[in-house]
Specification:
Helices cover 37% and strands 28% of the residues. It is of the alpha+beta class. The protein has one domain: Aminopeptidase. Strands 1-2-3-4-5-7-6 form a 7-stranded mixed sheet. Strand 3 and strand 4 form a beta hairpin.
Length: 174
Amino acid sequence: MINRVSINEGVSAHLDACLAMVRDSDLGRNYFQDEGRLTGIIREGLLKGEIRIACTAENPCAGFIWFTGAGMFYGFPYIRLLAVNPACRSDGIGSFLLQYVEDLLRQRQARKVFLTVAEFNLRAKRLYERLGYGEVALISDLYIAGYAEHVMMKQLDEVPRPTDLLSEIGHAIA
Ligand SMILES: CC(C)(COP(=O)(O)OP(=O)(O)OC[C@H]1O[C@@H](n2cnc3c(N)ncnc32)[C@H](O)[C@@H]1OP(=O)(O)O)[C@@H](O)C(=O)NCCC(=O)NCCS
């Protein structure tokens, strides 16, 4: 397990390290055979200031996460990409990045967060489930013909049950 991770905003100097992490994965091999397309996509995330980088004592760019504030249904945050340097996987960095973004979103009063994960990416799906994401849809051929995507959602706040709301209203009018 890693001892200390700090998070920085991603800048263009991180581009090559981010590209290498995605390329060296089934995700990169299946979805991003066109190198230029992947470069363009990650560059866009860095320019928009939507990428955060995980730094450890050993590695200044050990992983990254890309999230957009209202990327899902124009109203809910969407985690667009998460990747960890192959040498640093299974050390908790992916979990740390996800929890960091979830905390940030809670501070911004977000109630839900969404992501998609390809059907072949069982390891990533297990990680999301462990952290409380539940499947809300399965979409065939979403990005590439032949691959289905699990759409996953996590509830970030405690939703008051109708009975709690009623007792709150009771207090308010008592
Ligand atoms: C998916 C990915 C981001 C996960 O990152 P990671 O840093 O390896 O993730 P973590 O270390 O936090 O957790 C993964 C594993 O470590 C173990 N682990 C780490 N921290 C743990 C903790 N605190 N408690 C229990 N288990 C822990 C888990 O058991 C998990 O094992 P499993 O995958 O066998 O279930 C990484 O594998 C990756 O970059 N893959 C390629 C890109 C990709 O597919 N991204 C996802 C796109 S949807």
